[in-house]
Structure formats: structure tokens, C-alpha cells
Amino acid sequence: YTSKEEIAGFSHLAYRNEIIQNEYNMNIPRYVQSIETDIAHDVDAHLFGGIPKENIDKLKTLRELVPEVLAENIEEIRPGFVGLKNSIKEMTDIVLKHERILSLSKELEIKITDYTSKFWNELKRVTVDSNLVELEETMLNEIKQILKEFDHLDVYTGYQVIAEIWKNSLIHDTELIANEGFYTVARMREPKMVTKGTGKSKREEQDGWNGKIIPNTLIAQMLYGKEQQELDNKRNKIGELEMELTDLVEAAKVEDSVEYDALFDIIKKDKDDELTDSFDKSDLKSELKGIDKKSEQYKWLKKVDDLIAESAMLSKELKIEEKELWDAVEERILVLTDEEIDKLIFHKWFGKTVNDITSLIDVSVKSELNILQKLEERYADTLDSIDGQIENLLADFETLKADLVVG
After folding, report:
1. Whole-angstrom Cα distance, residue 53 to residue 132?
2. Sheet holding 81-84, edge to edge
3. Which of 81, 280, 293, 361 could cross-link with 268 by S-S, CB 3.0 to 4.6 Å?
């Protein structure tokens, strides 16, 4: 633990007498009570409609941050019960653009940006003499103190963002940086080992290189964006061709269609002689050889052949270009500039941190707006409205019954 704190739903300070009363049973549910999130149903609201005002009063974040928005968007429909003037979507748009919400988000953004900048410089300079455990604790304690300054966000969730960065990256990376130096280890590679073969011939072989602390995928993403986009475009094109072929197969299964007449015989069949979802290339070639090139069927067969050929060609090109890209990435590791290393590793560690933590304010607000929406939906159907629906259904039934003709 980092501190002895009592946090509802998460932790409890258990003293010796309490543990003795529980017969030394350390089962967590005996000490930490789960937070009840379900809102009790109000019978009166179900009968006559409206959201109980006491439920509105419990929307702490909305009431404290944007009380005027809440006041402008609800109205009393009878004593103790209110209704919404506008949709939740409209309210959400207003709340998220509210000056107070934007100001809080900006304030938090500045603090988290300063926080990441401060520890970025410390993390880059760790040595074998650095106490990495202490550095982790310092980072976690400091983020917790920053988040405690903001009353309307979940401190634990923000704390967990930094804890996950340590778990997923920093524990591994800082140890290597301490031993090798920041820029030196960033340019180091290690063999990429893959398992090949099966049974007695199963073995591990090297299949290229991985960056020791900078993932190859990150280098490709940030330094080879144009090449990545070209590969994505090619993958999308292959997907479109395959989809068009699949559509033709499905159309060819429909009797009395032109596709059925032209293409049914070249649909591939499985071992049970059942139709599959692809065409048989051998049957396609055979059909093309012995058919009149001016016929309607030839046009369909040629279309399928062209689609298959284009897909195969693009797939072959894609495989070659992917290998060229990953080979280039593996070589790039060795010659990364200091500026590129800073950019890559900062993104790896803190690329999403500011957004992940500042978004917690919006999350808190949206959570209460969701509660408001659920309450509105819960009490939308009153006893009178249900009776009205029943009467309408009975009337429709009587009309239908009167229209029936007995022959």
C-alpha cells in the first residue's frame, strides 16, 4: 500500500478488535462494503409519472458544476416530481461545452502536462544508482495529490492510468535505461524469435529484430505513416474485391437469376458436395476455355476471373511491400536520431495520458446524465398511459375482429 486511507467501496482501516470479532477472517467483503449504485424505484412515479426530485438532488456533479443548466432543463410537474424540458442529448451538448467544464478540463490538462514533462525528464536520466521503486511511488503519490484537487472525478481511475503505464512499460524500460543509457538502449535491437514446426521438429528460430524498448509497430506508425497508409489502402482494395466475389457467389446461388445461370457451376463444393462461399478456380479456367467469348455467360466468368486475378496480384504486392516496410523499420532502429527517440518513447509512455485523465471530468458528468436518462425512461410509462395503450390495443383488436370474413 502507499497510504492508509479509508475509501468507500475500495478500502477500510480495520483495527485489531474488529479483526478479532470477525474471528481473524480476512475476507475483503467483511470489511469493504460495495457501493450501491442501483436507484430504488418510486411507486408514485411509476403510477403518475415524473422523476423524483430527491433523485435529482443526488446528482452531485451536475448540481455543483452546472446548477443553472440543470435548473433550466427541468420543471416541476407536481410536488416532489420533475420532468425534462429537453432531451438528454441536448443537455449533454450544453454541459460539455459549458465554460466551467471547459475551464476545469483545461486546468487539469495543464497540471497533467506539467506532471508528464517533469517525470519524463527524470525517467530519461535514471541510472544504476536510481531507486526505481521509489520513483514509481513518487509518481503514483503525486498523481493522486493532483487529482484530489478536483472534486468531480474518480481519483482511483486516474491513479490507475499511471499504474498501468508502470506495469506495461516503465518497469521494463527504466531497468534497461538504468543499465545502458536512454539513447543507447533506444537504438538497441533483440532477436525476434518465432516457433516453427510441430512435434519433434518444433523449434525456435530468429525471424528479424525487435526494438529493445521501442516497439517496431510504433516506429512504423510514427515514422512510416505514408507507407502504412498505402498498405492500408491496398488491404482495403483487396477487401472490396473479396466482398464483390462473395456477393457474386451469393447471387449465383439464387435460382432463376442471371448469376445463377452463368456462375452456379463454378461455385466450390466441400467434401460433402455442399456449396461453399467461394468460386473454384480450376472450374473457372475450364469454363473459360470452352465458351463463346461473345456470350453473356463469358462476361460473367471473365468478371470473376478478373476479380480473382486482381485480388491475387494485390495480395502478392502487399506481402512484398509489408516485408520491405518491416525490414526498413528493423534497420531504422539502429540509426534513430535523438529527436526521433524522444518523440517515440514519450508517445509510448505518455501519448494518451493527458487525454485519458482530463476526460475523467467528462466521464463524471456523462455518468450523471446517463442516470438522468435512465430515470426519465424508467418513469415514462405511467399507469394511465399503460391503460391507454391497452384500450388502443383492444380497440384495434375489435376492429380486426369485425373485419374478419367467415367463409
Report:
1. 52
2. 51-52, 81-84, 74-78
3. 280
Beta bridge partners of 83: 75
Instruction: Report, in angstroms and rounded to the nearest whole number, the Rg of the chain calculated over CA atoms.
Output: 33
- What's CA 10's distance to the chain center, in Å? 25
Backbone angles phi, psi at 97, to 5 degrees: -95, 5
393-402 long-range contacts (CB < 8 A, ≥24 apart) are none
Domain residue ranges of the chain, discontinuous segments joined by +: 1-35, 216-335
Q: Which residues of the chain have pLDDT under 50?
A: 1, 36, 407
Of 173, 184, 185, nearest to 119 by C-alpha is 173
Would you call 144 exposed, middle or buried from its count of C-beta atoms within 10 A (0-12, 13-18, 19+)?
Answer: middle
- Helix, coil or strand: residue 83: strand
Q: What pLDDT sits at residue 44?
A: 85
pLDDT of residue 42: 84
How buried is 357 (Cβ within 10 angstroms: 0-12 exposed, 13-18 middle, 19+ buried)? Answer: buried
Instruction: For residue 211, report the phi and psi dihedrals to the nearest 5 degrees.
Output: -65, 140
> The C-alpha cell of 116 is what?
508528464
Decide: helix, strand or coil at residue 37.
coil
State how far the Cα of 90 lies from the Cα of 70, in Å rounded to an integer. Answer: 12
The per-residue pLDDT for 393 is 78
Contact 178, 127 (CB under 8 A): yes
